[in-house]
Amino acid sequence: MTHFVWDVDPVLLHLGPLQLRWYGLFFVGSFFIALWVAQGIFKKENKDPALLDSLLIYALVGTVIGARVMHCFAYEPSFYLSHPLEILKVWKGGLASHGGLLGVLVAFRIFAKRYKVDFWWLISRMAIVGPIVAAAVRIGNFFNSEILGLPTDKPWAVIFVHVDMLPRHPVQLYEASAYIVLFFILYGLWKKLDRSFATRLIPGVFLVLMFSARFMLEYVKTKQADYTWDLPFTTGQVLSLPFILIGAIWIGYAFATRSEDTTR
Q: Does the predicted model carry a pTM greater than 0.85?
């Protein structure tokens, strides 16, 4: 069986001692795509789109810091505790989506307080565009030939020649596809639901679906952490479970209080 061979250089451009990597292009570019979608949402709800220029900076900084810290201390703690200066070398790679979410939530909280925007409304609308960034990150991982899937003989398997010659699940593309579908689900909910109910419901749906997808796809991923749990779960699965639980409670609360929208 002939499998797809992936041998693309992860570096798009060499600029002297600097490099422009595909990963960085997808990562930063996704924020601008998300910004464009968010502008439409803001305009539709009579919010000032100019706020998004500042919000973009907050989101980028919060995501990178949170994702980097989580990667260093949840996936490779022994290495980074022994080499603390390596934590600062973000350009070498190593960002964890769970930490990115926590970091961006802190950033949004600071932003909401400074610019006097309702925090719950803000995270609900940003949850809609968040999967765009998550999908782009996984496509970037594909270009980097990292976060690999397990070997398989499926006809759609990919051989990452920069790693080995084994056909593997293109798990990065599975995950990116799941996040793109999630974006359309959340955008559809925002379009169809009462605005107040959408504000309460969307973050919960985001958490449950995003981290359920992450949990399930861990079964076809190679080991990422440099340690093992005394549990039948990977590090990614253990980190996903609290988000799924919080999301389920969030959804339950949204439906339990839905009657408030009709009594006001």
A: yes
